[in-house]
Amino acid sequence: MAFRERAFPTWTRLTTINRRATRRNSDRGRLLQTGTFICGAVGLDTDLSFVYQLFALLFCTLVFARLSIRVRSPEVSVKRQLPKYATAGVPFEYLITVTNNGHHVERDLQALDNPKIIPPDLAQFERMREPGEETRNAYDRWLGFHRFIWLQKLNTGISLKPADVPDVDLLSHAQAIVEATPLRRGSVYFESTTILHPDPFGLNYGATEFDNQEHLTVLPKRYPIPRWFEFKSGRHFQPGGINSTWSIGESDEFVSLRDYRDGDPIRKIHWASSAKRDKPVVKEFQDEFFVRQALVVDTFGNNPAAFEDVISVAASLLVDRENLDGLMDLYFMSTRPEIITAGQGHAQTAQQLEALANLQLTDRGSSDFVSLLSEQARRMSGCLMVFSGFSEQQETLLATVENRGVQTAVFIITEKNDRTAYRSDFFVLASGDIEAGLKAI
C-alpha cells in the first residue's frame, strides 16, 4: 500500500512526459534519433571505424531540425465545434476550424485536442480492476501500472486521434476532422487545443497551445429493446387532465359551454359567449385518463460495473418508450430523491438521459426515496424498475409500488455466476452481457 501511495505521483509525471515526447517527435524523427545513438555507441573508437562521421552528420541534422522549429510559429487561431451530445462507446467526429491570421500559407499542420487528464486516486485504484488484468504476469499485477493507465484513460473519458489540417491560405480557414471515442458516460472536459508544425525535415514538431475550454456531455450506452417487448400499463386518472401537463394551475379538457350556476369560478366564464347571450356562460371541463409510466433507477450499492449496466438498461428503456403517448417519470436518488418528467409540456427524453449520464452511486438511506414512491404511486399507470441485484432495499422499493396496485416490470442486473432464484416475471440480465440478455427477453 505504502509503495503505491509513493508511486502514484511518479506515474502521473511519467505519463505526462511520455505524452509530450510522443507529440514532439515524428516516427521519422524517432528513427533518426535511434540511428544517431547507435552510431555514437559504435563509433566511439575513431581509429577502428568511420561511423563517427555518420554520427556527426545525423547529430547536426537533429540539432538543426530542432532549432528550425523555433524560428517561426504559425499565426493561427482555432475554434472547436462539438456536438451537443455523444454516446459512450460510440465513435463520432467533430471539427476544429483553423484560421490563418498571418502572412504565410500554413502547411502540414496537425491539430491535437487536450482533454483534462484525471488520474485515479488510491481508493479507486484499489476498488476497480482492469479488464483482462488476470491475464497479466505477476509482476505487472503487483506493480499495477497498467491498471493506473487504464483508470486514467477512463477518468479522462475520451480517446482522440490527431487530425491533419489542410493547407490554410492567407486570411482563410480550414477544418480538421477529429475522430473521437467516448470511454464513459458523464461530462468530458477539454482544456486546450495544440497546433503542431513540423521542421523542414519532418523530424520534430513545434507546439503552439491555445486555451480552448469546453465540455461535452456523454450519454449512457444504450441497447436495442426487442420489438416484441411490451409493457402493458392501463390508462390512469390524472387530476387536471392531460392539458395540465403544459398549463399552470388546474386546466382540464374543454367539453362544452353551459349557463352559469352559483358557485362556478369566475375564471371559467366564457366572456365572448356571455356578451352574445347577455347572460353568464361558463366553460365546462372534464378530467382525462391517460398513460403516465414511471422508471425507477436503483442507485444503491457498491458495484460500479453493475451500476453502469443499470444506467445503460434504464437509458435503453427511456429511448424505447420515447415516442409513446402520455408521460414518463424518471425516479432516482442522488443527494435527494428526484423526479424528471418527459412528455408533452415537460422535459425531453434527452434531459432524462443527461441526468442518467451524471448519476453516481449513493449510500444515502432509501427512506426518503421510499416515501417519494409511496406518495407518487397514485399517479402511475405502470412502473419499470432497474435494480443491481435484489436485496432487502430493492425489495422494499418494489413492494412500495406494487402494494398500491401499480403494474411493474423489474429488470435485475446480476453477476454471470449468480444462481439466485428470482420471481418468474423478473427480467434477469447478466452484467457484462446486457445486449444478449435483452435480446432474449
Topology, pairings included?
Layout: H1 2-24, H2 27-42, H3 51-68, E1 76-81, E2 85-87, E3 92-100, E4 109-115, H4 122-127, H5 138-143, H6 145-156, E5 158-160, E6 163-165, E7 173-182, E8 186-198, E9 205-219, E10 236-238, E11 253-259, H7 271-277, E12 281-286, E13 288-290, E14 292-297, H8 304-320, E15 327-333, E16 337-342, H9 349-357, H10 367-376, E17 382-388, H11 392-402, E18 407-414, E19 427-430, H12 434-439
Parallel strand pairs: 2-9, 14-15, 14-17, 17-18, 18-19
Antiparallel strand pairs: 1-3, 3-7, 4-6, 4-8, 5-7, 8-9, 10-13, 11-12, 15-16
Would you kindly provide a written description of the structure presented here, covering whatever features stand out?
The chain folds into three domains: 2-13 and 72-219, Immunoglobulins (Immunoglobulin-like); 253-286, no CATH class; 291-439, von Willebrand factor, type A domain (Rossmann fold, 3-Layer(aba) Sandwich). It contains twelve helices and 19 strands. α8 packs antiparallel against α9. It has a six-stranded mixed sheet with strand order 16-15-14-17-18-19, sandwiched between helices. Strands 2-9-8-4-6 form a five-stranded mixed sheet. It has 441 residues and is α/β, with parallel strands linked by helices.
**Spatial strand arrangement across the major sheet:** 16-15-14-17-18-19
Helix amount: 25-40%
SSE class: alpha/beta
- Overall, the morphology is elongated
Count of distinct structural domains: 3
CATH H-level homologous superfamily name of the largest domain: Immunoglobulins
Q: In CATH's first tier, which class of the largest domain applies?
A: Mainly Beta
User: Mind telling me which CATH architecture of the largest domain this is?
Assistant: Sandwich
Number of strands: 19
Distance N to C terminus? 45 Å
